[in-house]
Amino acid sequence: MATGTHLDREHCVRAVRSKDARFDGWFFTAVLTTRIYCRPSCPVVPPKPENMTFYPSAAACQQAGFRACKRCRPDTSPGSPEWNRRADLVARAMRLIADGVVDREGVPGLAARLGYSTRQVERHLLAELGAGPLALARAQRAQTARLLIETTALPMADIAFAAGFSSVRSFNDTVREVFALSPSELRARVPANGTGTPGALTLRLPFRAPLNPSNLFGHLAATAVPGVEEWRDGAYRRTLRLPYGHGIAALAPRPDHIACRLTLSDLRDLTVAISRCRRLLDLDADPVAVDERLGTDPLLAPLVERGPGRRVPRTVDEAEFAVRAVLGQQVSTAAARTHAARLVTAHGKPLDDPEGGLTHLFPPAEALAAVDPESLAMPRTRRTTLTTLVRLLADGRVRLGVDTDWAEARARLLALPGFGPWTVDVIAMRALGDPDAFLPTDLGIRRAAGALGLPSTPAALTARAEAWRPWRAYAVQYLWATDDHPINFLPV
């Protein structure tokens, strides 16, 4: 299906008639007779094709005067997988908007991060999404507001500012316009919603099926840094450093969603926390497209058939992951966790966790750049690699974030001492989110490839993997899964 404003009408109509949930988030159906917009899988009887029009974003629907359907709740669709598989201007802008940059820094701040003028950014977003950055950010604020209205007992004024609105009036107007209900009417539609404990929220993170939780949560649990991450009571838990404060996320797999509990020191960080949790678990991926491509290789196909829907375990903090990648060079997983735990204990900010055993935030690059290199218990060459990296991250000469140009970041990392192709590609895959990053020199990948009858030398394996593009990072997950991390999931 085409992206942007050039949607294939015939394919869209077919998806709506078949109520195909795979296309939720790819596009939205606006009904001309009722003036509402829906996700493709809306359970109501589909409208006549001549009464359907299609938009590439909820913001474009809202801007055209359509209201969100009360049955299918299109504002809760998974995000478009386009923004996680591309590194162009529009994709980087969408990742920044999801991370709350427009709410915090305005459109000029968004444009400055991208290195373009505000006019260029607005033109590109309008061309592909039918809405500019302000409209896209407004749609996101409306979604956050609805979530807070329905899942907390917070006063409406508190919700307005937590969702990013500049005034209670704009909050009320937006909620009425988007949902055709006032904030109080929205709250009245759901059962009594808990105690209103400040900062604590329970919500559901949707995804496109299938999702295989074993490698995703297994890897996160097996590599968890003590004090920062843990596996407890069937959930992966970790601390979060956020723009306005800090938080703790608890994420547990369920058959049709991820159960998410967020404890935030400042509710203005809700949108960012949700975005980072979704990114961590790769929840906006299109597993059907990935598995269809990888399944064309007769030697990979049995792995795909046995455990479809594998995701790439990513990160909530790109700089943190780069530091951890260096700590993990040429050592076991256990040794890498030990090195990271020492840094956390010595230099991370302590926090309280009444619900578990988390103790610290991972230290930022600025804190690590001030560490005496002689205090680091590691070989001198890796010490040099680490101190060079954190110094350049701290002063901004190396930038790793949702807005990073993947090719530029690779080039800068490769120029650093101690950074070879394996380290750069694992950062590209796990931190930057490049879905085509590949690790042909990884010992586990080569061992798995040999066992399957695939070429096991890096050059030959890379040549074979050309057919897997643009999803080679997912092929890595299937190959790693032959020696996966065991996590026992209780029936739910």
What does this structure look like?
By secondary structure, the chain is α+β, with helices and mostly antiparallel strands. It is built from 23 helices and 9 strands. The strands form 2 sheets. Strands 5-9-8-7-6 form a 5-stranded antiparallel β-sheet. The protein has a 4-stranded mixed β-sheet with strand order 3-1-2-4. Helix 8 packs across helix 9, helix 15 packs antiparallel against helix 18 and helix 15 packs antiparallel against helix 20. The radius of gyration is 23 Å and the shape is globular.
What proportion of the residues is helical, as a percent range?
40-55%
Q: What is the rounded distance between the termini?
A: 34 Å
Query: Could you give a short account of the major beta sheet?
Result: 5 strands, antiparallel
Q: What are the low-pLDDT stretches, counting only 5+ consecutive residues below 50?
A: 1-5, 485-492
Look at the structure and give the mean pLDDT.
91
Task: Work out the number of β strands.
Answer: 9
Query: What's the alpha carbon Rg, rounded to whole Å?
Result: 23 Å
Judging from the principal axes of the Cα atoms, what is the shape?
globular
- Lateral arrangement of strands in the main beta sheet: 5-9-8-7-6
The structural class is: alpha+beta
Question: What portion of the residues fall into strands of 2 or more residues?
Answer: 5-15%
Number of helices: 23
